[in-house]
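User: Can you help me understand a structure? I only have the sequence.
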Amino acid sequence: MLAPMEQLTRDLSTYDACISAILPGILGLKLTLEVDTQDGGVKMMKTGFLKALSHRFDPLLTNNHATVATAVDPRFKMRFFMSDVVRNQVKVAVRDAAQEAVCYQIDDDAAANYNVQPQPEPDINSGQATASSGTGSPTVSTSTQEGTN
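Assistant: Let's start by predicting it. Here is the structure, written out as tokens:
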């Protein structure tokens, strides 16, 4: 009974473990514990483990990062999402994550068109602004030519 838990712990503790493997691992462990039939004392212990697993890991079933990662991982895809309602919710989450990623890419491309130039710092002694050697706060210029003010 403890062997599946030990194996899952080892699998998820490796340096290259992925968030996408958590949901399938936990759901597989739950199925293993539910199916395995043993004597009465072991059943009580399994019931306790199942309750603890549910308490600790059921919030991950609604976590967008975990569900999207599992859905886009080619090892798992949508296999571990049992109901059509959950599958549809995951598909919407994947679509939203993809749209958000595209928006970030567009923002990064737009930001590359701006030049960042140092802002003059006030001279403490005279009270006037002086040009600094880049140590001041940067200002964004929409000019695409270097050296224009």
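Now, to help you interpret it: The chain has a mean pLDDT of 76. Residues 84-111 form the longest helix (28 residues). Let me know which part you'd like to focus on.
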